[in-house]
Amino acid sequence: MKKVLLAFGLIAFIGAGVFAQEAKPAAAATQVQNPNAPVMEFESDVVDYGTIEQGADGVREFKFTNTGKEPLLISNARGSCGCTVPTWPKEPIKPGESSVIKVKYDTKRLGAINKSVTITSNAASPTKVVRIKGKIIAPQTSPVKETTGAPVEN
Question: What is the per-residue DSSP string for 121-153?
Answer without folding.
Answer: ESSSS-EEEEEEEEEEEPPP-PPPPPP-SPPPP
